[in-house]
Known about the structure:
Layout: E1 2-9, H1 13-24, E2 29-32, H2 61-70, E3 79-82, E4 85-90, E5 95-100, E6 103-114, E7 118-120, E8 133-135, H3 136-146, E9 153-157, H4 161-172, E10 176-181, H5 191-199, E11 204-205, E12 208-214, E13 221-226, E14 239-242, E15 245-248, E16 252-254, H6 257-261, E17 266-269, E18 274-277, E19 290-292, H7 302-319, H8 327-341, H9 348-356
Parallel strand pairs: 1-2, 1-6, 2-3, 6-19, 8-15, 9-10, 9-15, 10-11
Antiparallel strand pairs: 4-5, 5-6, 7-16, 12-13, 13-14, 17-18
Helix pairs in contact: 1-2, 1-7, 3-4, 4-5, 7-8
Amino acid sequence: MVKRDLIIVGAGPAGLSAAKVALEAGLTVTIIERAAILGGQLTKQTHKFFGSKEEYAKTRGIDIASILIDELKNYEKRLEILKEATVVGMYKDYVLTIYQGNEYFKYQAKAIIIATGASEKVLAFENNDLPGIYGAGAVQTLMNLYGIVPGNEVVMVGSGNIGLIVSYQLIQAGVKVKALLEAASNIGGYLVHAAKLVRLGVPIYTKTSVKKAFGDKQLEKIETVKLDENWQYIEGTEEIINCDALCISVGLTPLHQLLSMAEVDMIYISELGGLIPKKTPDYETSMPRVYACGDVTGIEEASSAMVEGKIAGLMAARDLGHRHKKFNELEKQFKDQLQNLRQGPSGVKIRLGLQKAGEEL
Ligand SMILES: Cc1cc2nc3c(=O)[nH]c(=O)nc-3n(C[C@H](O)[C@H](O)[C@H](O)COP(=O)(O)OP(=O)(O)OC[C@H]3O[C@@H](n4cnc5c(N)ncnc54)[C@H](O)[C@@H]3O)c2cc1C
């Protein structure tokens, strides 16, 4: 059995930030990432970020990933990175089963940080498995990592920031966005993004969803339907839109499976995207020396994922006997930063979710 000090699962903004602080404090760190490149969702985000100045607002997501990776370069002697390695099992004795290059092997850690992020939610309607129906994140990966457009005429479902930004990126790539459908009565994301789409001629239909998809081997058209105040179909309001791609952006849900497998205490909080681990203000779960940070603890943003990662890294280092030289100052700075990020109207849902989870705000 390979023994390690701190293992971080997931190299998105949360995992990379956790690694930096833990390394700075003097720990030896192993990062395990299932993708071939580090950076998580940042690697496909070509747009300039909103968020806080400290967390690189106005910088493109892909550039933030490079900054976070560069920050680890000073610590190469104490840093091991496994890429294209998926953690498929986590157990109560701090053992992780890893799958890499057609082989399974085990690592045992003194402490573990889970920073696995989130997966896309799906939408139930007839024929929702036809080729041509994608998640918005998948479309972003196809276009921005591999230069492939999903189709010629797309309909987007969901007007949160992801739906709005990916619609804009589709237009930038030369794809016609025929409509944006939103089940709620209001646009979910920032109005500045929605206004840009409207100026470019994309109609936004609120209180509207997809009822059915049609196509022989591939999507050819969809049937939309209006929704009443209980989100039920209003019969007789169906309309057909011809399109060869449908992009679903109806939210993300935390990738909690490893924590659940180790029987960490979990709680279902709809405002935070689904099942999340219960955790202390130090981001420690119910399993001692197992921490969680980023979208796996509730869907927020890259800015908060980075700060949560820093807290988890700081605490893991302390608990393994490597108290950071500036521990008190950094703890206060990170926790204040997180509180600031969650202020204002855009943080209402997150504050409510955290309150329901019984966490301090
Ligand atoms: C279109 C879009 C636009 C966005 N715009 C903004 C914005 O402007 N500002 C902002 O602050 N945020 C934005 N976000 C949100 C932001 O990208 C996420 O909140 C952030 O990436 C979450 O970070 P994370 O580290 O928790 O997870 P992720 O970035 O998802 O990283 C998780 C990593 O863990 C790896 N992993 C998962 N499971 C395993 C496993 N079992 N074994 C090994 N590795 C594993 C994954 O491959 C991934 O690399 C946007 C998101 C999207 C989709």
